[in-house]
Amino acid sequence: MVKVESNIExxxxxxxxxxxxxxxxxxSLLFVFVIAFTCLAIGIGFAFAGATMILPFAGLExxxxxxxxxxxxxxxxxxxxITLTKEKLKIEKGAGKIDQVxxxxxIWSYVSVEKPEHPWYPAHIVIRSKGERVPIxxxxxxxEKEDLVMSLEKIINQLK
Length: 160
What we know:
By secondary structure, the chain is of the alpha+beta class. It has 3 helices and 8 strands; from the N terminus they run ββααββββββα.
């Protein structure tokens, strides 16, 4: 998701980048509970039939599904914030809190789109300054990357 916020009076532009979230935490927990109930009900049924060794494996299966859902949901909550002013360019990355920050002079920074060698691979949007290279929006799909590039071009032209 690409969300652009502009304050024309103060000449501050902020672009918020987030991955697409197919479900919420509540829906994911509901999914894990349905899987847990189903697996444990089948396991308890087999335990009453005399096959008690299935219960630990049913528990491990529920634990594995829960951990996988948690890791996927954690990745969907990361975000990147790009703030552009007349003088500065600031990039903040993190999940829930800011983990990394880059701050450059806007005049000495430039945005480049690195085309992939093969059409199956995604393009990469990179901000370069002072010999550093910061990739942005790697989790975006191709349409969102095009929107991001167009938004950046529009903002940069407004700040000139």
